[in-house]
Design a protein that fits this description.
0% strand; mainly alpha; Four Helix Bundle (Hemerythrin (Met), subunit A)
Length: 159
Protein backbone atom coordinates (compact mmCIF):
# COMPACT_ATOMS: atom_id res chain seq x y z
CA UNK A 1 0.00 0.00 0.00
CA UNK A 2 1.59 3.29 -1.03
CA UNK A 3 2.16 5.97 1.56
CA UNK A 4 -0.24 8.91 1.50
CA UNK A 5 0.91 12.08 -0.23
CA UNK A 6 2.69 14.62 1.92
CA UNK A 7 1.38 18.18 1.77
CA UNK A 8 4.08 20.59 0.66
CA UNK A 9 6.23 17.90 -0.96
CA UNK A 10 6.78 17.43 -4.65
CA UNK A 11 7.72 19.44 -7.69
CA UNK A 12 4.88 21.92 -7.16
CA UNK A 13 5.61 22.43 -3.47
CA UNK A 14 5.99 26.00 -2.33
CA UNK A 15 7.45 25.20 1.10
CA UNK A 16 10.75 23.42 1.70
CA UNK A 17 10.34 19.66 2.11
CA UNK A 18 11.42 19.63 5.74
CA UNK A 19 8.60 22.02 6.67
CA UNK A 20 6.16 19.23 5.81
CA UNK A 21 7.85 16.93 8.32
CA UNK A 22 5.87 18.62 11.03
CA UNK A 23 2.48 17.97 9.42
CA UNK A 24 2.35 14.22 8.79
CA UNK A 25 4.07 10.96 9.60
CA UNK A 26 4.84 9.29 12.89
CA UNK A 27 4.14 10.67 16.32
CA UNK A 28 6.58 12.95 18.07
CA UNK A 29 7.19 10.10 20.55
CA UNK A 30 8.22 7.66 17.82
CA UNK A 31 10.44 10.28 16.19
CA UNK A 32 12.04 10.92 19.58
CA UNK A 33 12.57 7.18 20.07
CA UNK A 34 14.60 7.10 16.82
CA UNK A 35 16.64 10.09 18.00
CA UNK A 36 17.25 8.47 21.38
CA UNK A 37 18.38 5.23 19.73
CA UNK A 38 20.79 7.20 17.52
CA UNK A 39 22.14 9.07 20.54
CA UNK A 40 22.76 5.78 22.38
CA UNK A 41 24.66 4.43 19.35
CA UNK A 42 26.75 7.57 19.17
CA UNK A 43 27.56 7.31 22.88
CA UNK A 44 28.40 3.60 22.50
CA UNK A 45 30.66 4.37 19.53
CA UNK A 46 32.60 6.96 21.48
CA UNK A 47 32.94 4.67 24.51
CA UNK A 48 34.15 1.79 22.31
CA UNK A 49 36.58 4.08 20.48
CA UNK A 50 38.06 5.30 23.78
CA UNK A 51 38.52 1.67 24.83
CA UNK A 52 40.32 0.89 21.55
CA UNK A 53 37.53 -1.33 20.18
CA UNK A 54 37.60 0.38 16.82
CA UNK A 55 35.71 -2.14 14.69
CA UNK A 56 32.63 -2.06 16.90
CA UNK A 57 32.93 1.70 17.35
CA UNK A 58 32.75 2.11 13.57
CA UNK A 59 29.64 -0.09 13.47
CA UNK A 60 27.94 2.09 16.08
CA UNK A 61 28.89 5.28 14.22
CA UNK A 62 27.17 3.78 11.17
CA UNK A 63 24.13 2.89 13.28
CA UNK A 64 23.87 6.39 14.76
CA UNK A 65 23.86 7.95 11.31
CA UNK A 66 21.40 5.40 9.93
CA UNK A 67 18.93 5.94 12.78
CA UNK A 68 19.08 9.74 12.47
CA UNK A 69 18.15 9.50 8.80
CA UNK A 70 15.51 6.83 9.48
CA UNK A 71 13.95 9.26 11.95
CA UNK A 72 13.54 11.80 9.14
CA UNK A 73 12.08 9.20 6.80
CA UNK A 74 9.63 8.02 9.44
CA UNK A 75 8.58 11.54 10.35
CA UNK A 76 7.93 12.26 6.68
CA UNK A 77 5.46 9.39 6.55
CA UNK A 78 7.88 7.30 4.49
CA UNK A 79 9.46 4.88 6.98
CA UNK A 80 12.26 2.77 5.51
CA UNK A 81 13.44 -0.75 6.18
CA UNK A 82 16.79 -0.58 4.39
CA UNK A 83 20.03 -0.52 6.33
CA UNK A 84 21.76 1.57 3.67
CA UNK A 85 22.20 5.22 4.59
CA UNK A 86 22.74 6.01 0.91
CA UNK A 87 19.36 4.46 0.03
CA UNK A 88 17.71 6.43 2.82
CA UNK A 89 19.22 9.68 1.57
CA UNK A 90 18.14 8.89 -1.99
CA UNK A 91 14.63 8.33 -0.63
CA UNK A 92 14.76 11.81 0.89
CA UNK A 93 16.02 13.22 -2.41
CA UNK A 94 13.05 11.61 -4.17
CA UNK A 95 10.88 13.75 -1.88
CA UNK A 96 12.61 16.86 -3.24
CA UNK A 97 14.93 17.19 -0.26
CA UNK A 98 18.25 18.87 -0.91
CA UNK A 99 20.78 16.31 0.30
CA UNK A 100 24.27 17.77 -0.13
CA UNK A 101 26.79 15.59 -1.94
CA UNK A 102 29.23 15.54 1.03
CA UNK A 103 26.49 13.91 3.09
CA UNK A 104 25.95 11.23 0.43
CA UNK A 105 29.72 10.63 0.23
CA UNK A 106 29.88 10.21 4.01
CA UNK A 107 27.01 7.73 3.79
CA UNK A 108 28.80 5.72 1.09
CA UNK A 109 31.84 5.40 3.29
CA UNK A 110 29.86 4.40 6.38
CA UNK A 111 27.66 1.92 4.50
CA UNK A 112 30.78 -0.04 3.58
CA UNK A 113 31.36 -0.76 7.28
CA UNK A 114 27.89 -1.97 8.29
CA UNK A 115 28.83 -5.66 7.96
CA UNK A 116 32.60 -5.50 7.47
CA UNK A 117 33.17 -4.00 10.92
CA UNK A 118 31.52 -6.98 12.66
CA UNK A 119 32.07 -10.13 10.59
CA UNK A 120 35.07 -11.76 8.91
CA UNK A 121 32.79 -12.55 5.94
CA UNK A 122 34.83 -12.40 2.76
CA UNK A 123 37.84 -10.92 4.52
CA UNK A 124 39.31 -14.02 6.09
CA UNK A 125 40.40 -12.08 9.16
CA UNK A 126 38.69 -10.83 12.30
CA UNK A 127 37.47 -7.22 11.88
CA UNK A 128 39.27 -6.00 15.00
CA UNK A 129 42.56 -6.68 13.19
CA UNK A 130 41.57 -4.39 10.31
CA UNK A 131 40.35 -1.33 12.20
CA UNK A 132 42.48 1.27 13.91
CA UNK A 133 42.15 4.72 15.46
CA UNK A 134 42.49 6.46 12.08
CA UNK A 135 39.57 4.57 10.55
CA UNK A 136 37.60 5.12 13.74
CA UNK A 137 38.12 8.91 13.62
CA UNK A 138 37.18 8.96 9.93
CA UNK A 139 33.97 7.05 10.68
CA UNK A 140 33.13 9.48 13.48
CA UNK A 141 33.59 12.38 11.05
CA UNK A 142 31.34 10.75 8.43
CA UNK A 143 28.69 9.99 11.04
CA UNK A 144 28.76 13.54 12.37
CA UNK A 145 28.38 14.94 8.84
CA UNK A 146 25.16 12.95 8.51
CA UNK A 147 23.96 13.74 12.04
CA UNK A 148 24.47 17.49 11.48
CA UNK A 149 22.50 17.23 8.23
CA UNK A 150 19.63 15.49 10.05
CA UNK A 151 19.73 17.97 12.94
CA UNK A 152 19.41 20.89 10.52
CA UNK A 153 15.84 19.85 9.71
CA UNK A 154 14.66 19.98 13.27
CA UNK A 155 16.37 23.28 14.03
CA UNK A 156 14.81 25.05 11.01
CA UNK A 157 11.28 23.73 11.34
CA UNK A 158 8.35 25.28 13.16
CA UNK A 159 8.05 24.85 16.91
Amino acid sequence: MPAPPIPGVGPAATAPWHASLYCVGVSEEEYQAWLDAAARDLEAARTLAEAGNCSLAVFHYQQAAEKRIKALCALSGRPALTRSIVDLLLKLRSLDTDVPEPVVRAARRLDAHHVQSRYPTGLGVAPEKLYDEVICREAEGWAMEIVRFAESFRSTGPE
